[in-house]
Amino acid sequence: MNDGRTADGGSKAVATPSLGKVVLASNNAGKLREFAALLDAAGIELIAQGTLNVPEAEEPHQTFVENALAKARHAAKLTGLPALADDSGLCVRALRGAPGVYSARYAQLAGGEKSDAANNTRLVAQLADVTDRRAYYFCVLVLVRDADDPEPLIAEGRWQGEILDTPRGAHGFGYDPHFFIPALNATAAELEPSVKNATSHRAIALQQLLARLEEDGLLTDTIAGLAKLNNTSKARSVIADARDMLGGNGVLLENHVIRHMGDIEIIHTYEGTATMQALIVGRDITGVGAFV
Fold first, then answer.
1. Is 12 domain-assigned?
2. Residues 87 and 136 in one domain
3. pLDDT of 240
């Protein structure tokens, strides 16, 4: 009988499978673009549930985490694949956290249509006589290895900003044209996709999730390949380019260290992982791996 021990009585090392394909429990094209760009840098192929004929799950809950968990289990059950789900939304302080979990159908709650334009129109109207425009985007990510996973991985991110009456920018989706980030002096819709992918609520949550996956050994195989750099000077050049792209807004920390592991040079940014990954992917810098 195999009891999990070696002949000398020691415990066998159990191999932990790395993630390869993950189904995204959403058909939102904007979310797919953002998540795919970020996860690609970690060697994970993201598949939209719609391409696997998975219908949208119900979102009956009043909290982000409950909705995200329900969607992830639903997609995993119908596909047999690990599943990633997010539930995210805009929370406005003056509106006591609304739109919140109802962000995607905010206008519908008042009898309007389900569209970004209608949602933004209702939001701006509700804030017409309000001076406190503070708001934040909130995201909860849930990853389940299978439909019955008893220990789902959960991460969250919060992106602070304020609401503008007049939309600005042509990128992004949802409330992005009205969501102004003072630290970047731009709305989310004015940011280049690579910068948004590096700083948003989803980026913050995903960075937490990737750290958990690495900690649990689920990224071991992919990170070994992604972390390779041709040489130190090239790595430093990439960092310099990234700083230039960020325009000194402070997102990327100056503090970094180069350490050698055999013939592999890995650059660690203490709090800039997602930023570096997204910027590198955005610039299509070939031959340079992800930063871990």
1. no
2. yes
3. 52
pTM of the model: 0.68
From 221, 240, 256, the end of a domain falls on 221
Q: Taking 50 as the threshold, does the pLDDT of residue 141 lie above it?
A: yes
If pLDDT is split at 50, 70 and 90, which confidence band does 22 have? very high
Q: Identify the DSSP state of 57.
A: P
Residue 4 falls within a domain, yes or no?
A: no
pLDDT at residue 16, as a whole number? 38
Question: Can you read off the two tokens belonging to residue 92?
Answer: 């406005």
- Between CA 183 and CA 190 the distance in angstroms is 13
Do residues 217 and 231 both lie within one domain? no
CATH code assigned at 79: 3.90.950.10
Active-site annotation, residues: 87
Q: How far apart are the first and last CA of the chain?
A: 40
**Pick from 101, 102, 51: which is nearest to 81 by CA?**
51
In whole angstroms, what is the distance from residue 289 CA to residue 188 CA?
27
- H-state helical runs in the chain: 29-40, 64-79, 116-126, 193-199, 201-215, 220-226, 232-246, 273-283
CB atoms within 10 A of CB 2: 5
Total of domains in the chain: 2
Tens of pLDDT, residues 240-266? 554 444 444 333 332 222 222 222 233
DSSP secondary structure letter of residue 228: -
Query: pLDDT tens-digit profile of 236-246?
Result: 454 455 444 44
**One domain, residues 111 and 243:** no
Compute φ and ψ for 16, nearest 5 degrees.
-100, 120
